[in-house]
Task: structure prediction
Amino acid sequence: MMGGIPTNIQGQVLSPDDLGEQKIVKGVYAIGECACVSVHGANRLGGNSLLDIIVFGRKAALTISEALQSQSSSQSNADLNLDTVRQRLQRWQKRNETSAEGSVQADSVIQIKKSLQQTMDTGCGVFRDQQTMQQAFDDLQEIQVRLNSVCLTDFNDVFNLERLAGLELENLVAIAFATVASALARTESRGAHSRVDFTERDDQAWLKHTLYFQEKHRLEYKAVNLQPKQHAAFEPKPRIY
Result:
């Protein structure tokens, strides 16, 4: 993936509505490597990624500051619902409480992470094709099942690295699904997406952003803006270097 969560120049997260228009997700911001303001191409250079942090990060901070100053504390907490956050933090503890007393857990966060690393390295590495990516997608579903049943062995509330590793693993699995599902659908090579079964870039079919949604691994697409205001359109050119 190049880019990330779609945002406007204020860092506010955007999501398509029922009519396909981009709407602001209230109170949610994304900056840095996780965000896609859409100022980069299909394979951005490392130095250019600082733009997402320095420029749009500052703009997001200013926007948040202005929003907080324009409303009272009671207004800002009116729609706050932390149930989902609490459930995620407690789910590891609950798994252990519901497991059979005295049983030995054969799986672990470390073992699942190793399986995830091997799956993504083999199935969705630098060069990929339909068969290897489909196998990776199937393996990810098995990894998700393992992740849903694994438990923690350390329940300390201070400096608990195992809990941190578990939460990070949940994120990694979600990102892996987004990567593989999107790459499987994109039958071309573009930027860092190099398919040996589709070696050429296909602007006619795939000059568009892929939007991934976690529920049922749903995909939608968004048009690429090739004509900024007061400038002529940018015409896509072949990579010849």
In short: Residues 123 and 133 are 5 Å apart (CA to CA). The helical segments are 50-69, 73-76, 83-98, 109-123, 130-149, 161-185, 203-206. The beta strands are 5-6, 12-16, 22-29, 35-36, 127-128, 194-195, 208-213, 218-223.
